[in-house]
Sequence to fold (247 residues):
Amino acid sequence: MMRLDKFLCDRNLGTRSQVKKDIKAGLVLVNNSRVLQPERQIEEERDLICYKGQLCTYEKYVYYLLNKPAGVVSATEDRHHRTVLDLLGEDRRKDLFPVGRLDKDTEGLLLITNDGILTHDLLAPGKHVEKEYECHLAAYFDDRQRAALEQGVDIGEKKRTRPAVVRILDDRKITLTITEGRFHQVKRMLHAVENEVTYLKRIRMGAVLLDEGLPRGGYRKLTKEEVESLKYEKNTYGVREDREVQA
Fold:
């Protein structure tokens, strides 16, 4: 159950004061009956809410795929910089947050949701969900560097990185797939093998690929299949981790 005015606000249909005004003006129907009380309790998953002639459906969880541009920070709010949530425009909700972070200068796939359980599972270190990045490099990339990354490298922490998967695109461009989320990890891994990243873009998380049809700063809802693939993958990686421990 929730208040009618809160339901409308959560749907980004106006400020609390505006929707209260509209309710009192008779612009809202609940189950085809006009309701004039903003505090009216509704069953958001069962009641039919019509606002200014528009049917408002309830979505407990929402999932967006954003093509993050450089210069935008992966945060819910920031006093000095534009955030990824600012890019959602009218679809922005107070309960949304990014799934993990991309550096300010990093581009590409970023998931945004209000599903805390799925977010936790996708980011939990023990799940080992894959994240793939396209890396442009300052120097030529050779077999020695590839072998080191695929074995795991020392980036100045207690543990070496987990083995990565490397695909060579050309002499100075690779894709790197990792299953961790350490601070500036990709850049530090390339630095550890005496190279530097000049451009970085995430192109995949789990089974979800960056939609190349999205312009920088563009976004869309995840399809039902994409959401299910993320839920399946986080469970699969959990099982995989259990098997590794038993082995």
